[in-house]
Amino acid sequence: MLDFTISQGIATLRLNRPQVFNSINRELALALQARLRECQADASVRAVVLTGTGKAFCAGQDLGEITGPNRPEVADIVEELYNPIVVLLRELEKPVLAAVNGVAAGAGANLALACDVVVACESAAFVQAFSKIGLVPDSGGTYFLPRLVGLQKATALMLLGDKVTAAEAERMGMIYKVFSNEAFDQEVATLAQKLAALPTKALAYTKQLLNGTFGNDLAHQLRAEGDYQLRASATADYREGVAAFIEKRQPTFTGQ
Fold first, then answer.
1. Does the pLDDT of residue 45 top 80, yes or no?
2. In whole angstroms, what is the distance from residue 114 CA to residue 11 CA?
3. CA 47 to CA 58: how far, in whole Å?
4. How many structural domains comprise the chain?
5. What element of type H or E holds 15?
6. Which residues form the signal peptide (predicted)?
7. What is the pLDDT of residue 74?
């Protein structure tokens, strides 16, 4: 249901329900929450990859779970299952790479957009599918998408439920990069390794600054930058980075 591995500082969380396009049920959502907390607590983890198995990244909520006789309230599912995942992704003090290996629809699309860096294979697509079943976007979609592509484009995509190809998503700034299907796995591995080799605390501080930027005016953001710069300059990785620059060599960061 959720495959989890750690190798060379990279934790990979792979949604593994390919028979239902990796749609999310309660068990999978809670497992994802638990593994993200584990990634936060494990100092050996320097970067996290979120991806899927098979033809889809994630088709969103498993509708079979919310249509039975003992179905939970949709609002409870959002509050208990999806919102905690979004918060964990944003507050995780390590970079999170979404490797979108296929269709990302509904909450699946928005969980990808909640990650720090999003890449996709050329055959992937993103769909804000909520309006097609009479629901509204959740999982942070109405927060992240307008900030990525602008209000007009985000509004149209959410109201109309258009399918956005990976190439279109890259052009409109929704995602970072598109890779060919053939090269996708290797490109994801290379990018994850690069993230894992960078100064982890500085990346975490950068992430926290970005989390606050849209709620701050310039004066508050400048003060926040100063505060986090002070923290970053006290790290071992800062000292290593400066030493490597002076010595004209590649730095070896430890995440400390």
1. yes
2. 17
3. 21
4. 2
5. strand 10-15
6. none
7. 86
Torsion of CA 213, 219, 224, 229, to 10 degrees: 110
Q: What's 222's domain CATH number?
A: 1.10.12
* Confidence category of residue 71, pLDDT binned at 50, 70, 90: confident
pLDDT surpasses 90 at 174 = yes
Q: Within this chain, do residues 153 and 231 fall inside the same structural domain, yes or no?
A: no
Inter-residue contact 121 to 102 (CB < 8 Å)? yes
Q: pLDDT of 142-169, one tens digit each? A: 999 999 999 999 999 999 999 999 999 9
Rg (CA), the chain: 19
pLDDT single digits (tens) 50-61:
999 999 999 999
Co-location of 130 and 233 in the same domain? no
Residue with tokens 């007009």: 152
pTM of the complete model: 0.96
226 and 127 belong to one structural domain: no
- Three-state secondary structure readout of 17-49: CHHHCCCECHHHHHHHHHHHHHHHHCCCCCEEE
| Residue 59 DSSP symbol | -
**Per-residue pLDDT tens for 207-230?**
999 999 999 999 999 999 999 999
CB burial of residue 39 (10 Å; 0-12, 13-18, 19+): buried
Q: Can you give the residue range of the structural domain that contains 159?
A: 2-196
In a domain, 255, yes or no: no
Which amino acid is present at 243?
A
